[in-house]
Task: structure prediction
Amino acid sequence: GAVVSQHPSWVICKSGTSVKIECRSLDFQATTMFWYRQFPKQSLMLMATSNEGSKATYEQGVEKDKFLINHASLTLSTLTVTSAHPEDSSFYICSARVVGAITGELFFGEGSRLTVL
Amino acid sequence: KNQVEQSPQSLIILEGKNCTLQCNYTVSPFSNLRWYKQDTGRGPVSLTIMTFSENTKSNGRYTATLDADTKQSSLHITASQLSDSASYICVVSAIRVASGTYKYIFGTGTRLKVLA
Result:
């Protein structure tokens, strides 16, 4: 199957700093990538839909100025958590949809655990 | 309203036993249904994907069923192993006909614990 790589796997930062998480589709092109947040023992919560070459679509309640998403190419989307605070600590996961896939198959990254001190 | 409900919320079984997880959905227009396995601290991994016309699909010890009439799916795990301990997530996709784009609706997941 297709591979989606996330980097970094985990990051610890000080409150007030910004953190960038990368999501790459390694062996396929993805016009659409999705970013999720997951709290312990809960399911994934969709944060935003990232479309290559255009602005991301954010879910209700997600601050677009707080979570900056850039999808500059068909294989890379980035999520930047700006001015991070302890409440932003979470597990962030991305997924990508294969271009032209009839079934809209989704492939997930391994996730990035953010801890804000 | 598009919704996906999973049951049970959590489940504990002994190694070697079988179990069945349920997924009920109200998603329209339905495109397909997927079951994912998510190990703690990892991203979800696809187990099966089922379209409207498929009733049963197997992947090793995992067998998924789909009843499109009742809008129910189940994931049956045979001869469970310790490594089956994970969260199992049901994801139903709806297709926006006008744009051809997909909307994915996630279930809340079932947390399975297999004990030795």
Summary: Chain A has no helices and eleven strands.
